[in-house]
Amino acid sequence: MPLQPIRLFGDPVLRQKAQPVTDFDKELRRLVEDLTDTMLEAPGAGLAAPQIGVGLRVFTWYVDGEVGHLVNPDLTLSDETQDGDEGCLSIPGLKYDCRRALSVVARGFNMYGDPVLIEGSELLARAIQHETDHLDGVLFIDRLDEAARKAAMREIRESDWFGLALNSGTAPTVKVSPHATRGFAI
């Protein structure tokens, strides 16, 4: 499947709530394949449909050697939390410590419309929460404390890619290289 350009911070699609999937058809399966291929090439631990400009509630993940996807997720989060480095393919080069639930139970569907239940902790829980946030128009920097969020915004404004968005008048789309993510990114 063709690799898709990843939308960057500043693109309005990243702030819009994605619509539930109603048709579990060939187009949805193609979307899941495009998301998976693009995520693996980036590389990242997850990728949500809005990150490639598609406003549907679908995401993929790649954690601990396992590739998966979830359609129309509904999450139950643990009360216990974890802190850890988090990045995002839509905000290249940025990593901050972000608090998330330690474990998650995610219910939804696979690309064929079959019910799916995923239980995960640590990195898988972080990836599922991060990608579900994308489906709700929330970015991980929104979850940072005020000081970290201000520092992140300053770093974004000073980035080379953010300058491109300002100069062109539109949010750029790019194929993110492994060097741009500087490590873990979801």
Describe the structure.
Removes the formyl group from the N-terminal Met of newly synthesized proteins. Requires at least a dipeptide for an efficient rate of reaction. N-terminal L-methionine is a prerequisite for activity but the enzyme has broad specificity at other positions. InterPro entries: Peptide_deformylase, Peptide_deformylase_sf. Its cofactor is Fe(2+). The chain is an alpha+beta fold. It has a single domain, classed as Peptide Deformylase, CATH 3.90.45. It contains five helices and nine strands; from the N terminus they run βαβββββββαααβα. It has helices at 26-41, 122-135, 146-158, 160-168, 178-181, and strands spanning 6-7, 46-48, 58-63, 66-77, 81-88, 91-101, 103-109, 115-121, 173-174. Strands 2-3-4-7-8 form a five-stranded antiparallel sheet, with helices on both faces. The chain is globular and about 45 Å long. Residues 165-184 have low confidence and may be disordered.
